[in-house]
Amino acid sequence: MNTLLETPSKQGIRVFFLWYRFITLGYVVILALTGLKVLSVWLLAIAILYSVLLYVFRYTTLNWLQAHPYLLLIDVFIVHAFRVASGAYESPYLLYTFSPLFLAAFLLSYRGAFIFASVESVLLIAGTYMGGYWVTYLAESGEHISTYFLFYFFIAFAMAYLADLLNKLEAINKKKACINNDLARGRKCLEISLAFNRLSDREAQVLMLSSEGKTVSQVASELGISENTIKTYLKRINDKLSVTSKKEAISKITGQED
């Protein structure tokens, strides 16, 4: 399962999916204002209010969905209720029904994309029937309902692919950051060894990790040796650098001596 609020980029994508609802509702408003569709003002007001609440509480909602992603099914039924209540097959809310599908693809990857696309396809048939349209009648009249099915799955898998790609890019960036950190440590360790060539490689390592603010226990854990061995290395370092404490040794290598 993907992690929902890992990075700013993912947060931005999920917030965009919430804004997508307002864009599609804007389309519904335009249809109503131009007279192309006769719509219920109350239904439109409820849809807008629902979308506003989702946006206002977006972080809480997204965190809930992160912990319990299948709660998104509630959203699926709500958006399809808007569609059924406004003309079913001819509803202007059709684009609005894609919004939970987008989030499902990012929350559950390809598995979630397939499951939710299937659920929405079933709801499309059910809603079409409840709206008084028979699938056979639509087919005979030249309406290709199968196009909607394919579009649900196409959109879902496209979003899942985008989510998978984003996860891989973030994994590469994390690995790159780890490599850069290891290189920086290695460079610092080499600088210590060159500046104080009396120190062994292991002593330079211990001193370098100590200079990062790590305790004796943390240094021992990272290097896989005992705390007593670390203390022995620190004593040797103090002797070789002619200092009396770890703090003085760190100050000496960082050039911060009084």
From TrEMBL:
Which keywords fit this entry according to its UniProt record? DNA-binding, Membrane, Transcription, Transcription regulation, Transmembrane, Transmembrane helix
Its recorded name reads: HTH luxR-type domain-containing protein
Going by the entry's taxonomy, the superkingdom of the source organism is recorded as: Bacteria
Task: List the PROSITE patterns hit by this protein, alphabetically.
Answer: HTH_LUXR_1, HTH_LUXR_2
The UniProt entry's GO biological process terms, in alphabetical order, are: regulation of DNA-templated transcription
Keyword flag Membrane:
yes
Return the SMART domains for the record.
HTH_LUXR
Return one GO MF term.
Answer: DNA binding
**Record-linked CDD domains:** LuxR_C_like
Native source species: Candidatus Aquicultor secundus
UniProt domain HTH luxR-type: residue ranges: 192-257
Segments spanning the bilayer are 12-33, 39-57, 69-87, 93-110, 122-139, 145-166
